[in-house]
């Protein structure tokens, strides 16, 4: 048993036949008093073998089991469902019925971020990728939700990290798991990526790697990529002074150093290779859009042995850095938009948030164009064969 203080947990390995009621029953049968739970989402995972849920408890400090007993009504092939709060790898937050499923939207968090918590409203429980976006990305003809929404998590702790991984090390597992979104023989649906901060650099590195590969799986994956929506991504580096202090002499120092504003060989190489990598994605048009911050962020300081975000304020990622990947775009101003939030809050939207409305309209336009482009490409491919 493990004490947990976070408000949202992930339950993986649920049988495809299980319902919300099944999960609530499993949680209420736990002997640690977790009866008062809310099931926020229950969706078939991208691999199609099981379901994943997100849940919360009335008592935010409830002690819950690392695993749950199998559902007595539906015994899945994965045995006991597992419960965790790290959200590593892919987590499906919403999956429409197969007949309605037209597009995938995948969100990637940033440095030191949490795959789920990074996109949750400040001080609240609303998570727009789960609680709002699925019902707003709808088919114009049927009015039904058409987007499968997933998040991707990876470990990138800054302070007291024991990891020596660099951006390429993080991008490798992400790239390998992307092939699971479109297994061989499955319907190839377009993918729109949402990335925050370091997550955008991880995404770009994965695309560069896919472009360099002649493997059939890599080609299948890259041809599904249509939209890249960047939020505060430091294409040309960021103000990493306080992050370097946090990293100290730890093994992750090189990772933090590589995303700085001064003489980053990694960023220079990525800037050189990324445009060409995009051109290998396939015949249909790709869309890149950049949101950038215009509100200063407090930086990290250590007080009484604890790191807090109470230091001097700074724009962590400048507009120049956040939009650098659009240098060769003739109508650059139509592919950028300011959000008057801090670096971390640029992807945190509450219910009825006006900034969410701005982001939603852009995602709607990109998603609908992606579907049209993908349909047209499939038609021409059929005609040519």
Automatic annotation (TrEMBL):
SUPFAM superfamilies: alpha/beta-Hydrolases (SSF53474)
A GO CC annotation given for this chain: endoplasmic reticulum
Main location: endoplasmic reticulum
Organism domain of life: Eukaryota
UniProt keyword terms in alphabetical order: Endoplasmic reticulum, Membrane, Mitochondrion
Compartments reported by the entry: Endoplasmic reticulum; Membrane; Mitochondrion
Protein name in UniProt: DUF676 domain-containing protein
Species annotation: Microdochium trichocladiopsis
